[in-house]
Known about the structure:
The chain is of the alpha/beta class. Helices cover 25% and strands 34% of the residues. The strands form four sheets. It has a seven-stranded mixed β-sheet with strand order 3-2-1-4-5-19-18, sandwiched between helices. α1 packs across α5. The model has no long low-confidence stretch (mean pLDDT 92). S-adenosylmethionine (SAM) binds at residues 5, 8, 12, 24, 70-72, 75-76, 90-93, 96, 134-136, 139-140.
Amino acid sequence: MPGDLREVQDTWERLAQIDPLWAVLSEPDKRGRKWCPDDFLATGRLEIEHLLEDLRSLGFDGRESALDFGCGAGRLSIALAAGFSQVVSVDISPTMVETARTFAGGASNIRFIVNDRDDLSVLAPGQFDLVYSNIVLQHMPPEAAAGYIREFYRVVRPGGFVVFQIPSHLTEEWLPGGGGSVLPEEARAARVVVLDAPATLVAGQKTVVRLQVTNQSGVDWMQDLVHQINVGNHWVGADGVEILHDDARSRLPGSVRAGETCEVSIEICAPRVTGCACVEFDVVQEAVCWFADHGSIPARHPIAITAPISEEDVVESAPSAYPTFMMNGIPRDEVRDLVAACGAEVLDEAEHITEWVSYRYTTRLKD
Ligand SMILES: C[S@@+](CC[C@H](N)C(=O)[O-])C[C@H]1O[C@@H](n2cnc3c(N)ncnc32)[C@H](O)[C@@H]1O
């Protein structure tokens, strides 16, 4: 297995062991094994229902065989198995595949395969009516994603459909501007509001907090490559003494104009102490200053920190418990060239915008 795929496999295997459903659909309020499996699987049924409606409107009539590449916990495979005689589900993580197998409950028309190769040589050519891959190709190096896309067209039958999602580029809002510019003194005025944070945490536990950040100065904040403008946090004890300086960071968008407000999430980690504490959020320009040191008023949110009491608490509270998955994209023009080079045509490109501009490409291999 190539080295960079080993890293991908390690990350997904660890995530699958810790919290497989959240790793697939990372809703902040579902972290810590909080997804109800029925609700999780229902999202897959809805997605596949819409997919098949869209495909039929484009002339797709296959019912025999589908490939779900990067099947995760089986959310899409199980839904596909209701519409196809045979589904093949491939994933790089053995634990994801085991989870999917359990959810599939012995469905006889799904074949699960753990594949850690950078190709799909485990699959014979020209066998699928449909190849589908959603929120997978973004989590690997772009060269690996391009290699799998080529393989999709090898394993689909002539006239068959290949539908895959992959980001193209970061939105302008999230692109950093120049490098090395320091905001002037009068720009260092922020209002931070905590939108959503817990009242208690276990010592060492991580949690995602949503914040609203307003640029209260008369100067536009333009993101910088070298001196990034971030929101960060410290922890302060009940006595006002700092317990932990510099916990987490989250980048602000590419620009927050004078008077503008943006929303960001930040993953904080409770210090390994118990008792009442306050988490303090402030804007920081890296290697320049915290805004609070220049008169800006940080947001404070009280959190009671408790000692771990169960095994589950301990696992959840381990600081490195959740590894971070990589996010990558391939520019849309390159994807179009790749599809054409594989002898296929693009029938539809559905745009989806988050930090990334992403596309779901619906393509058909020419007969
Ligand atoms: C965000 S999950 C999506 C799962 C599924 N497609 C869904 O939407 O429910 C990403 C999945 O891609 C898998 N994956 C990542 N790299 C892969 C690779 N090179 N080959 C196969 N699966 C991969 C991960 O193990 C993980 O299960």
